């Protein structure tokens, strides 16, 4: 009788979405791990990038220090993706690193020898690829969280979710998402390319 009751309960839970909640929750966790992996990949590139730039532009200390400090900040964080405040701090720190890297790349434009350095070119390629991976991983995570949140808020699985302590998960917010989507300009295929992208000509008023 006990086994029969357990089987009935298992069937009821399955029918109410318990198994799907588990699967979606695990998918979100896996997606978050990939986001962290890609951000860590970028952070690991920063020391070599800073040292390479320093070899040609040691007097650009303010920019180099900003990148180093921003990298140290993201490296020291222990983020909890289930805590909205912790996730917001994580987004802010990553946005600060993105901004610092963007400023560093503007400085690099003033050093043709650095832009032709083989080590720098390799780091440029790695950083550009990592920024693309970050965008893909972050976009996938946003979709996974949206899917999970929609599911656990829907009836009747919302009852099962509350029963077992599964609530909606925080996601990247619009403002912070925009900030961390600003990937550093790392394409030096043509002289002045970065400046061209950042400063588009403004239309002149008629008359």
From TrEMBL:
<dbReference type="InterPro" id="IPR023353">
    <property type="entry name" value="LemA-like_dom_sf"/>
</dbReference>
<comment type="similarity">
    <text>Belongs to the LemA family.</text>
</comment>
<keyword id="KW-0812">Transmembrane</keyword>
<feature type="region of interest" description="Disordered">
    <location>
        <begin position="183"/>
        <end position="207"/>
    </location>
</feature>
<keyword id="KW-1133">Transmembrane helix</keyword>
<dbReference type="InterPro" id="IPR007156">
    <property type="entry name" value="MamQ_LemA"/>
</dbReference>
<dbReference type="Pfam" id="PF04011">
    <property type="entry name" value="LemA"/>
</dbReference>
<protein>
    <submittedName>
        <fullName>LemA family protein</fullName>
    </submittedName>
</protein>
<keyword id="KW-0472">Membrane</keyword>
